[in-house]
Amino acid sequence: MLVDSHCHLNFPELSDNIEAVRASMLESQVGHALCVSVTLDKVHEVLTLAETYDNFYASVGVHPDYENIDEPTVDVLVKLAEHPKVVAIGETGLDYFRLTGDLSWQRERFRTHIRAAIIANKPLIIHTRSAAEDTIKIMREEHAHLVGGVMHCFTESLEVALQAIELGFYISFSGIVTFKNAGQLKEVAKTIPLDRILVETDSPYLAPIPFRGKTNQPAYVRYTAQEVAQLRGISLEQVMEATTANFFRLFSDATPCS
User: Fold this and answer.
1) How far apart are CA 222 and CA 55, in angstroms?
2) Radius of gyration of the chain (CA)
3) CA 251 from centroid of its chain's CA atoms
4) Which of 8, 35, 67, 228 has its CA 20 to 30 A from that of 200?
């Protein structure tokens, strides 16, 4: 079985068809999914999914893209993380691609999440785009290595991947790794240790080839795993076994379903 280590099943593209999504997961041998929070006002949606389905898990956090919303505090995040199906803090991080100007608020929000994760003893789900240097810098300054986590939907260089791995983080590949123009990313997937790799969809976005441009769903994580297997010259079964073991090692509060 595979695990979709990062998806947004509460988003409207998928939330009205959860049973169909789950049926497709079963057919594609995707046994579990981590439903990731992006804003505090929708955390209850993510928690409800995790409460309703024993093979779904949840995270709590606020995405770096969202300005002028309810700002998370350490205390709020720690309290939300007490929920038994919450296995991580995030997604959090830095994004200098979509936003410009004074982004000090974004960096402070990132620090808040790391501090909460350390208190809650939960791993972090980190988003970084066009901000790798500052992301790694803040991870070091705030001692993110104490809890570790995952660099989700990774698109950075091998050097950045190795720096994150040194800090105890895993590298998660999305459907982007299947794209023809993703040469640098393919090299990362080919090179880093197998015991540091996760796979994800980031659905409903970033559908892999052959579904590029369509609504993504957890079942499609299989295509990402196939690409990783091909790049590394190993079997799909080896990637399935390794990435699933990696997921439950990292997210130790997630209990595998039979």
Assistant:
1) 17
2) 17
3) 11
4) 67
